[in-house]
Specification:
single chain, Ribosomal Protein L25, Chain P, RNA Polymerase Alpha Subunit, Chain A, domain 2, 2 domains, about 35% strand
Length: about 230
């Protein structure tokens, strides 16, 4: 499936370093444009619109970037997020040549229901991204994997099972690489720590010190009596 191309407007950025914090307060995201045969450019993007377009496009769908009256085909790369608030802090924009093949990571999307999973088994998601090579305009948005054919333990979908236009898209992963697989559920083993009964407490762990103190007290009393 080839994604409908989104568009996004950018402005050149003069603020760099720690001062970009002010841009974020103004609802802007700092970004960098790079590509073959060009000098990297610092730009700023509208934060809400950028997050919306990135959510729709991911890192494998072309986006039309409008800058200074020109439109450039770009791919989003290396998004950085605030670990606490989760908002986008910075993102790279890879300007591509539509006539040259590129490599990109394409996500796997799961669809359908598996009888094996319904029966209580587990669907193991082993490789949910594959690397492909294609012209930018031929990059698939994702690969859809239907798990309804997985009915027994050890049933699996491999890279070789992915539907792909081989004359346009080349998958770089090994054909035998597993995407998803059915496995038996692991039983959770709860280890119980046995607590010894009072009668089972070793003599060394019983109240010997207190008893010793009592015995010592009687001995001391007898010695005191002798002195008298």
């Amino acid at each position: 499936m080839v994604h409908k191309r989104e568009s996004l407007k950018a402005e050149k950025r003069t603020i760099t370093g720690k001062k970009v914090r002010q841009l974020r307060k103004e609802g802007l995201v700092p970004a960098s444009i790079y590509g073959k045969g060009m000098t990297s450019l610092s730009v700023q993007l509208p934060a809400k619109e950028t997050e919306k377009v990135f959510a729709a496009s991911g890192e494998s769908a072309l986006v039309d970037l409008m800058l200074d009256g020109e439109t450039w085909p770009i791919l989003f790369k290396n998004p950085q997020y605030d670990p606490l608030e989760g908002n986008l802090l910075h993102i790279d924009l890879h300007k591509v040549n539509l006539k040259e093949k590129i490599t990109a990571e394409v996500p796997i999307v799961i669809t359908g229901e598996s009888e094996a999973v319904k029966a209580g088994n587990v669907l193991m998601e082993i490789n949910m991204v594959v690397e492909v090579e294609a012209l930018p305009t031929d990059l698939p948005e994702n690969f859809v994997v239907d798990i309804s054919s997985l009915k027994n333990i050890d049933d699996a979908v491999t890279v070789a099972d992915l539907a792909v236009e081989k004359d346009k898209v080349e998958i770089k992963n090994a054909p035998e690489q597993i995407i998803v697989k059915i496995a038996e559920p692991k039983e959770e083993v709860i280890e119980e720590v046995a607590t010894p009964a009072p009668s089972e407490v070793p003599a060394t762990e019983q109240k010997a010190p207190e008893e010793g103190e009592a015995a010592g007290g009687e001995t001391a009393a007898k010695e005191e009596k002798k002195k008298e």
